[in-house]
Amino acid sequence: MARRRRKSKPMPSEAFSAQIESLDHDGRGVARIDGKATFIEGALPGEDVTFHYLSQHKSYDEGVVSEIIKASPDRVEPKCPHFGVCGGCSLQHMDAKAQILAKQQIMLDNFKHIGSVQPESVLEPLTAIEWGYRRKARLGCRYVAKKESVLVGFREKRTGWLAEMSRCEVMHPAIGERIMELRQLVSDLKCFQRLPQIEVAIGDDVIALVFRHMDDLVDEDKEKLIQFGQQHDIHIYLQPKGPDSVHLVWPQQSQLSYRLEEFELEMLFKPTDFTQVNTDINRKMLNLAITMLDPQANERVLDLFCGLGNFTLPLARRAGHVIGVEGEESLVQRGKENAAHNQIDNVEFHAADLTQEPHQHPWFGSGFDKILIDPPRSGAFEIVKLMPAFGANRIVYVSCNPATLARDAQVLVEAGYQLKSAGVMDMFPHTTHVESIALFER
Fold first, then answer.
1. 373-384 pLDDT per residue, tens
2. Cα dihedral angle (102, 105, 106, 107), rounded to 10 degrees?
3. Would you say 242 and 212 are in contact if contact means Cβ atoms under 8 Å apart?
4. This prediction's pTM
5. Residues with a known catalytic role
6. What pLDDT, on the 0 to 100 scale, is given for residue 11?
7. What confidence score (pLDDT) does residue 135 get?
8. Four-way CATH pick for 16-75: 2.40.50.140, 1.10.340.30, 3.50.50.60, 1.10.443.10
9. Could you state, in order of their start, the residue ranges of all structural domains in the chain?
10. Is the pLDDT confidence value at 439 over 90?
11. Which CATH class is domain 101-129+274-441?
12. Is 347 exposed, middle or buried (0-12, 13-18, 19+ CB in 10 A)?
C-alpha cells in the first residue's frame, strides 16, 4: 500500500525575534521559542536577532537570520563573497579565536553528555593559518543550462546544487584563486557535460588535479588539459572509471609528498590517497601526539587506522618497534613504500578491517606498551572494547568526531583507563568540523 505523503507545514512569512543562547554542532545559533529549541543559521551566542522559519518539526524548528539587532562581540565580516550560499564554510561570520573555543566546548559537552566523562585537564587549542590552508578537496563540476555556464566548486548550504563560485578563500591559493580559470577550462572541453568532478591534491612541491570524466576524452580535450597544467605548473591526472583508473598525463613523472622535518621524514602519497587537508596543523598534531604518547626506545607501539604512516613513521623514529594497522590495502602499501623511502626498518604494516574481530591476525596477541588510534568519523567502538587485551598503559586517541570520541572514551574509562587530558585542533577553520586529541592512562 502506498504511503500517504505528509503535507509540509507552511512556514510563516513574517520575521520573529529570538535571543541566541548557544551554538549547535552545525554552527547554528540555538534559541528557545515558547520552550521549543530553534536552530537559526547565521546567529551567534549572545545575539538578539530576527529570523524567518525554514522548517518546523514536532520537537524543534529551523530558521535563518533576517536581521542582527544586537551583535555578538565575536561577530566579524565574512571574507568570502560566497559565504552563506556555499556549504563549504559555516563560521566565517565568527572570529577565529571564538570558533576554536566553541569547538572546544562542543568536545567537552560531548564528553559530559555522551560519555559521562571529563578530562582531568584541557589542552591549549592547536591553531595555525586561517585562510588558504586546504590542500585536499573534491570539487564538483556541472553545466547549468539556465546560467549557460559551467560551475566548479562546493555544494550550496541547503541544496544539492553547486554554488556559483569565483574563488575559495580556504583552499590553497594555487587552486582557490583559480576557480574561474577552472570553470573556463571545463567550458572549453568537448566533454564539458560529462566531467563531474575535479580532485585537488597539493604536496609541499607539487600541485595535482585529477579530472573525473565519464566518456573517453578526444585528443583535443587532453591537449587543453595538458596546456592548462603547463601554463600553471599543475600536474594533470585523468580518471575515466574507478580510483584504480587514475593515471598521469602531464608531466611524464610526478610525486606528491609532504615533509616532517622534526622527524627527518618525507611522506609520499598518490593524489587520491587520504592525507590531512591542513599541513601546518598536521605537523603540530604529530608533535603533540608523540609528546603525549612519549614512546621509548625499548617499547612496542601499535598505530591503529594508520593510513599511509602519518603517525606510524614518526613513532618509529622514537620507539623500539611500531606496528601500523589499516583497512585499506593501497594505504598499507603506501606505508611500506614510505618506510623504505625513509630507510626505517623497525616498523610493520598490516591490512585488517578494524570493525571486525581481529583475534586471527598475527599482530593482535603480541602485546603493546602504548597505542595511538586515529579512526574515521564512525569511531572505533569495536576495537576499543578490546583495548585491555593489548596491555598498553597509555593510549592517545585522535578524533575527527567528538561524539564518537566521547562514546569510545566511556568504554575506555569503564575498562580502567583515566581520561588525563584532551584538546581541540583547528584542522578546518571556518567550518564546524571538530578535530580533537585525548590521552588515556591506566
1. 999 999 999 999
2. 130
3. no
4. 0.94
5. 400
6. 61
7. 98
8. 2.40.50.140
9. 16-75, 101-129+274-441, 136-202+207-254
10. yes
11. alpha beta
12. buried
